[in-house]
Amino acid sequence: MNRPNFPRRRALAALLLGAAGATSAWAQSPAAPAATAAPVRIGMIEGLSGPFANTGEAVYRNLVWATERVNARGGVKLPGGNRPLVIERFDSKGQTEEALSALRSAIDRDITIVTQGNSSAAAAGLIDAINKHNERDTTKQVLFLNYSAVDPVLTNQKCSYWHFRFDAHADMRMSALMSVLRDDRELKSVYLIGQDYSFGQAVLREARSQLAAKRPDVKIVGDELHPMARVKDFAPYAAKIKASGAQAVLTGNWGNDLTLLVKAAREAGFDGSFYTFYGNALGAPAAIGDAGIGKVVAVADWFPNVPTKESEAFYQSFRQRFPNPADDYVHMRMQLMVESLAQAIERAGSVNAAAVAAQLEKAKVKLAGQSAHMRAADHQFQQPLAVAVMDRQGAPGVKFDVEGSGYGFRVVRHLTPAQAEQPHGCNMTR
Question: Which segments constitute the Leucine-binding protein domain (predicted)?
């Protein structure tokens, strides 16, 4: 697992947080009118230290790149003048209480747009806190943009007018994975394993449900949760997986919990498949190596090897901006999230949270050939999903590798937004 590059992090922070350097160098292009008014600040609340620090830093790079694109065309256009977008960092240390403390700090600094994603537990806490704050202080209401927290409850039972999710939730991702698993007729046994918190529990619950409905002939030979971010040695889990006779592992694990799991399974001699939510990045392909060719399956909103010129140009642009292979972690949905925000601010003609929310409900955006829109009823982003399988770079359909590992992902299933869409149980208070 690559650790954060702290000099690079400080350099990026200086670029984004300095008042004079709030816009990227691109924004100084004569082709775009310069943003002259005070910046629109976005508070990123994320784990930037601790076991999942690398995921937080990866998110930061994505948000940096997205805001640079907006700023390159002059920032967001408002009646008082163009304003750049600026990311301000708040370290939650991967803990819900720290995330709530970071929210209070952001509000104290008059930041009214916050974004977070790498923990559904933290996201749930933020939704509750923002709901209460916005009821108490209608003069400084806060908007919450969620790029990765995918527990379905967040846009169902806990849906909030102030919360917008830009990632496909766990049930949507599971359905996409099952569209491939369903067709694997040789598969007869599967081991379910996940992180013991709301998201991991939701993944295994939905896995059981969808397996029963779509592949009742597949036997679940293991079903367990493990402590999140606290397991340093997954060898005992890998031994149980191998001993179970499972032909495949299905997991929603992410970050170090995924990398260490697949590495331990490989070292234990497990030669089955992995059906994953996040097996395509953050060290997992390098950890599993050749053993993953044709066997590691991942689901995402977008993959670098989507076979279109627009997609290839988009990915090449990111690699030029962040050439270090360790920084190779680009997510289309985070780019679309910032584009949606910029669109909503301009249509609202204001940065008032309620006014922006009213426009964000109607967001329709397109970037690099990827089209998506926000569903107003539950604030769940509707976008394409893809399922891909790991292969060696250079194989058909695998032009690009991941993180310099020599392994990439070939898209084997593509779902349109309509195919990926699922019903909701939101009864939103407006």
Answer: 39-394
12 and 141 share a domain? yes
Does residue 425 form part of some domain? no
- Tens of pLDDT, residue by residue over 77-127, are 999 999 999 999 999 999 999 999 999 999 999 999 999 999 999 999 999
Read off the pLDDT of each residue in 243-269 and give the average, rounded to a whole number. Answer: 94
pLDDT of residue 52: 85
Please state the domain count of the chain. 2
Q: Give tens-digit pLDDT for 15-46.
A: 444 333 333 333 333 345 676 689 999 999 99
Are 128 and 247 within one domain? no
**Is 430 a domain residue?**
no
* Distance (Å, whole) CA 373 – CA 26: 27
Same domain, 377 and 275: no
The predicted model scores a pTM of: 0.89
Q: Is the pLDDT of residue 152 over 50?
A: yes
Domain that holds residue 410: 171-300+384-420
3-state secondary structure the chain: CCCCCHHHHHHHHHHHHCCCCCCCHHHHCCCCCCCCCCCEEEEEEECCCCCCHHHHHHHHHHHHHHHHHHHHCCCECCCCCCECEEEEEEECCCCHHHHHHHHHHHHHCCCCEEEECCCHHHHHHHHHHHHHHHHHCCCCCCEEEECCCCCHHHHCCCCCCCEEECCCCHHHHHHHHHHHHCCCCCCCEEEEEEECCHHHHHHHHHHHHHHHHHCCCCEEEEEEEECCCCCCCCHHHHHHHHHHCCCEEEECCCCHHHHHHHHHHHHCCCCCEEEECCCCCCCHHHHHHHHHCCCEEEEECCCCCCCCHHHHHHHHHHHHHCCCHHHCCCCHHHHHHHHHHHHHHHHHCCCCHHHHHHHHCCCEEEECCEEEEEECCCCEEECCEEEEEEEECCCCCCCCCCCCCCEEEEEEEEECHHHHCCCCCCCCCC
**Is the same domain home to 164 and 51?**
yes
Residues 146 and 120 both lie in one domain? yes
